[in-house]
Amino acid sequence: MATETMAHTRRADAWERVRASILLALAYVATGRLGLLLAEHQPNATLVWAPTGISLAVLILRGRRLWPGVFAGAFVVNVMMQTPLAAALGISVGNTLEAVAGATLLRRWGRFEPGLSRATDVLRFLLAAVACTLVSATVGVGSLIAGGVVESAAAPVAWLDWWLGDLGGAVVVGPIVLVSARGRPAFGELARRKEAWGALALVALSSTLAFSTEIPVELRLPLALLGFPLLLWSGLRFGPRGAMLAATVVAVVAFVGVARGGGPFVDRYGLYLTLAYVCTIGAVASVLAAAIAERELAQQRQGLERDERLKVEAQLQRQQRLEELGVLAGGVAHDFNNLLVPIYANAEVLRRSVAESERSLVDDILRSAQHARDLSQQLLTYAGKQDASLEPLDLGEVVERVCAFVLSSLGSNVHLVRELRAWPHVVGDRTLLRQLLINLILNANEAIGADGGTIRVELGVEASPDGGERAVVRVADNGCGMDARTRERLFDPFYTTKSAGRGLGLSAVAGIVRLHEGVMDVESSQGKGATFRLSLPATEAPASVAENGSGAEPEPLAIRKLLVADDDAVVRRTVVRLLTEAGYDVVVAVDGRDAVDKFADHADELSLALLDVTMPRMAGTEAAAEIRRRAPELPIVLMSGFTGGLRAGEAAADLPFIAKPFTVDELLATLEAALDDSSRRARLELVR
């Protein structure tokens, strides 16, 4: 099957080459006949041999494999001139070598742009035109001498006329074909501009007067020179194609005028001067086209670089603003959690002592405290300081479960499409990643609204610049989209476009992304939907590990003496009262340094230390490290208003942690688990 397909492709390419070669031959014959009509008035040479420019340009654009079209066209033209067959074959070979040599030189001389968009391209083209036309003139005149058409004595003049005619065709016609095929701007755009028509009309008028037989000879040269500023105007205003169109008009008018015996150059060197004029027009137009194109490209590059620089600066400013907001949010949440500790704990204690009829009042306090606690957790999530249980996860399973979970929450006219091209594994917190995906999908559902639409959830793997892989999740919708202002503030805390919006919105998503060392990109425009792209570092699938448990049952806990350290007096009093009521004996410290000193005084009596992470003089993690150095077996629990506060010290990374605010039950359960774990380790040491 593959062999048949390749054979079919080769046959199609062959037929395409044949068709293109036939069209090239027809164009060669048609323009060649026109050149011969002009030669009737100047028997020794044609003014411009247009087929040279056409064949050279076509082989540059379409490839040298179209050389048969050049050969066939040249042979037919020479036969129509009643040139002897042998001489016609020789001339055809010379014309073919001319076009092939020019295209080969441009290919060998480096990167050449056929649209003549650079000055170096124009220079290379002009040099190639000079070189390749030498081949045609030499072979052609040699063939005429060998065929007896031209005498040897007349060979130098015949060679010069031939070479100048071919060079004129290459310089004038070749750039016109190249720029018409690859240049700028579009012809349709030029046709819609009235100024362009006006400029071409003025160029045509000045050229017609300059090469007219009715105008006095002394006025023709100034009129001919007037074409240059008009040509400059056309190029500056209408780009490369405008310049080349103006040059084409001048060349055509000059051809016709010379054929009728007109023009400013009427002496015996008139043909050469006219030829020089036309070639100069073509060269000026080519250089001007390149200069204009280079200027436009430079302006475009400058504009792109400026836009990119502004974009990067805006991103840096936004990132800095988000980081500042994150620091502020984390600080507020920390202090807020400290304030909630006595409210939460005292309300629980109060609920146990009030009458049944009054408990509803305390329940209202607890519910409000719980809402405040949730808001504080959102602030910490945004700040990237929420505690995370990072573990290897199958991200495909997480995406599948989230999609199944949110189906009942989507609008009846919203269609959820899942496309899981891969099932990568990542290291992350399952709960937080679920929250992130749920937020994105539900936001997409609200963006679609009552009109209905589709939400696409895609999962795949992409190569990472550092050589690894990244898991990529895309959540796209065809809803209302966002304008630039909304995109800029999308992840700001409490920013919303909803009339009844509340909470941190997508800012919590940004915090989760930062917590997982991920990247979130957003593409959206007004009325065209939005696409959120989440990229996370991928990891290897974890090996199954059988869990081992000691099976030992915890022993009943006796009354223990605990060390409690917190710099907040209200939190300190509240925790001490709760632990005392629970049956613990408590030693109190007001900061980290005081905690180390109190430990030294009661080292033999203490069963556990409960330390706040953020304290003056010495942080809780530093105090924990110092206490552990002196008593490695003493269980230590850290607490903080930053739920991720234990990350502040690497030495404390393996210590139990409880986030403020906490309930009485949460506090006691954490402490009892730490004491139980310490007892279990002590029993294992005795067994060994």
CATH architecture of the largest domain: Orthogonal Bundle
Largest sheet: 7 strands, mixed
Beta-strand level of the residues, as a percent range? Answer: 5-15%
CATH fold description of the largest domain = Arp2/3 complex 21 kDa subunit ARPC3
The counted number of beta strands is 12
Give the % helix.
Answer: 55-70%
The CATH C-level name of the largest domain is: Mainly Alpha
Write up this protein:
By secondary structure, this protein is of the alpha/beta class. The protein folds into 4 domains: 20-182, Arp2/3 complex 21 kDa subunit ARPC3, CATH 1.10.1760; 317-383; 391-539, Histidine kinase-like ATPase, C-terminal domain (Heat Shock Protein 90, 2-Layer Sandwich); 561-687, 3-Layer(aba) Sandwich (Rossmann fold). 61% of the residues lie in helices and 11% in strands. It contains 20 helices and 12 strands. It has helices at residues 2-39, 50-62, 67-80, 85-108, 119-146, 155-182, 187-191, 194-210, 217-225, 227-259, 270-353, 359-383, 395-406, 430-448, 484-488, 507-515, 569-581, 592-601, 620-630, 664-687; strands at 391-394, 414-420, 425-428, 453-463, 469-477, 519-524, 530-539, 561-565, 585-589, 606-612, 636-640, 657-659. Strands 1, 2, 3, 4, 5, 6 and 7 form a 7-stranded mixed β-sheet that branches. A 5-stranded parallel β-sheet has the order 9-8-10-11-12, sandwiched between helices. Helix 17 links the parallel strand 8 and strand 9 (585-589). The protein is elongated, with a radius of gyration of 43 Å. The two termini are 73 Å apart. Mean pLDDT is 80; it is low at 40-44, 499-504, 544-558, 645-651 and 683-688.
